[in-house]
Write a structure and sequence with these properties.
By secondary structure, the protein is α+β, with helices and mostly antiparallel strands. Helix content is about 30%, strand content about 25%. It is globular and about 45 Å long.
Length: about 130
């Protein structure tokens, strides 16, 4: 099943959200302020599979972490359109730390590459600053 179908579940119970949190953060360890699967930064995105309401899902752990963060904040998931993506403010693509993740367009996400290259945040108007 696809991520849009997961996002469309507006009636998730606290038990289901707790289950997703367990799936996402199982075996995650803090390493110098970043949260990594098995305590290791990887070159590829950490993935997870889980079954919810009889449907099997497969997705990136960081995407699931951001999903949980936005759910906690009361974000209306229908506003998470196809043009929005998970962006890592810390520039560590395998980090699961909720505070290091934000939802933005791919264009804004790519703009952050300059900050990483320069070693400091160049500023992003009304969007969160990079954690470099």
């Amino acid at each position: 099943m696809s991520f849009p179908e997961l996002k469309s579940m507006s009636d998730m119970t606290a038990e289901e959200l707790n289950y997703l949190s367990t799936v996402c953060f199982r075996d995650a360890q803090d390493v110098e302020g970043h949260l990594y699967y098995k305590g290791q930064e990887r070159k590829a995105y950490a993935q997870t599979s889980f079954t919810l309401r009889g449907t099997k899902y497969h997705m990136r752990k960081a995407q699931l972490s951001l999903f949980l963060k936005l759910k906690e904040e009361g974000f209306q998931m229908e506003n998470w359109g196809e043009k929005l993506t998970t962006s890592h403010l810390c520039h560590k693509k395998d980090c699961l730390q909720k505070e290091h993740l934000t939802l933005e367009t791919l264009e804004y996400n790519r703009e952050r590459d300059d900050c990483l290259w320069r070693g400091h945040c160049l500023g992003h108007k009304d969007r969160p600053q990079c954690l470099v």
